[in-house]
Amino acid sequence: MKPLIQKVEALDKGHFVRVEWEDGSESHYPCVWLRDSCQCPHCFLRSAGARRLLFEDLDVNIVVKEVTLSDRKKISITWPDEHSSEYEAEWLKKRCFSEKARAEMREDLFLPEHQYWGSDLQLPKMPFEEVLYNDESAYKWLCTLKKVGIMLLTGAAARQGELLKLGHRVGFLRLTFYGPTWQVQDKADANNVAYTTGKLCFHTDYPALQHPPGVQFLHCIKQTSAGGESEVVDGFHVCNKLKEQNPQAYQILSSTAVDYTDVGVDFCEFAVQCKQRIIDVDARGQAVRINYNNATRDTVFDIPAEKVRQFYAALKEFNDLLNSTEHKFTYKLKPGDVVTFDNWRVLHGRQSYQSGAEVTRHLEGAYADWDVVMSRLRLLRKRIRSRD
Fold first, then answer.
1. What CA–CA distance (Å, rounded) separates 185 from 364?
2. Total structural domains in the chain?
3. Are 124 and 144 in contact (CB under 8 A)?
4. What is the helix, strand, coil percentage profile of the chain, to 5?
5. Residue 291: exposed, middle, or buried by beta-carbon count in 10 A (0-12, 13-18, 19+)?
6. ∠95-100-106 over CA atoms, to 5°?
7. 87-128: per-residue pLDDT in tens?
8. Any idea where the TauD/TfdA-like domain is (predicted)?
9. pLDDT tens-digit profile of 60-94?
10. Radius of gyration of the chain (CA)
């Protein structure tokens, strides 16, 4: 049911417009926001969905001259300079400033809900081909990726290049110094610890970048018979546990800038340096990104010497929680499996395996940014809803 307006009036000497809805609820809109959001062709470029009105032309103290309910589906406003604006009821309702409406809009735009997990994870699975060619399946995959943080796609061909198809499905892959895709296998003179047969501790990829990739894809092309099991842990779940268990440790890890470095030659020569907090938090103190990779944590540590030991103690507690049996989930990829996961939330690792004369284990990896993935999710949702 589309919303209908019962009554409209100006309040607070014309600084607010009050809309009373047919269901009895009401919304209050600041007039400066209404003028700034005018949808007329002079103020808004509809073909680009972008504001044309220059901010320097906006009077932040503006009041309405007249507001009328032209029909129950829209309101009309005349401003002091005689400029007129119209606002559709549905458009206004979605942008209501009430706490409830703002929460609904956040949910619709960003899908902020998280489903936390530990060793009890039921790893979500879906056929690779379905994701490539079926919109409903692709939408389910991306929603699950956002909510749970991980999904396994099965049945891809056991050859290089399959991740390029996945990149095209979401939009495009993220290019890094290791190339558009990269090969995880035992290499002589490895330029990354992942390119060895040793155990990989829990980590997120690429905290040495100012903006680490949001989503990671790992496609199993060849798997060793013994060892090489994959491990994952829900970093946000562990952060919540740490915050409960030791608030001071949480505060240290979310406020201390740690140096990360990555130097070498691959797609091109690189010398990357960055400072990251191991736990990035939002205004409410909730973890929004984990930046933790012990291999690329620099020996340079730009903090006072007397604070170093307490930092290490906090990190040790966090690391112990990551590795506890109740939190980590272990599985083994088979050729044709593609694991897709949130690199800002899910930390991953690998058990060691034996090196041999030939390559016994081969994964192809790639990254995508959350902006690209969320864009595709919204487009798929719009397409699916338009069919209903």
1. 9
2. 2
3. yes
4. 30, 30, 40
5. buried
6. 60
7. 999 999 999 999 999 999 999 999 999 999 999 999 999 999
8. 118-367
9. 999 999 999 988 999 999 999 999 999 999 999 99
10. 26
Task: Provide the β-strand partners of residue 152.
Answer: 125, 339
- pLDDT classification of 357: cutoffs 50, 70, 90: confident
* Residue 329 · residue 116 · CB < 8 Å: no
Distance CA 199, CA 179 (A): 23
- Tokens at 6, concatenated: 């019962």
DSSP per residue over 206-268, as a string? -TTSSS--SEEEEEEEE--SSB--EEEEEHHHHHHHHHHH-HHHHHHHTT-EEEEEEEEESSS
Residues 54 and 10 in one domain: yes
Residue 337 within any structural domain of the chain: yes
Distance, in Å, from the CA atom of 176 to the CA atom of 150, rounded to the nearest integer, reads 22
Which helix or strand (DSSP H or E) is residue 120 part of? Answer: none
DSSP codes of every residue in 3-19: --EEEEEEEGGGTEEEE
Angle (CA) 267-272-278 rounded to 5° is 120
CATH number of the CATH domain containing 101: 3.30.2020.30
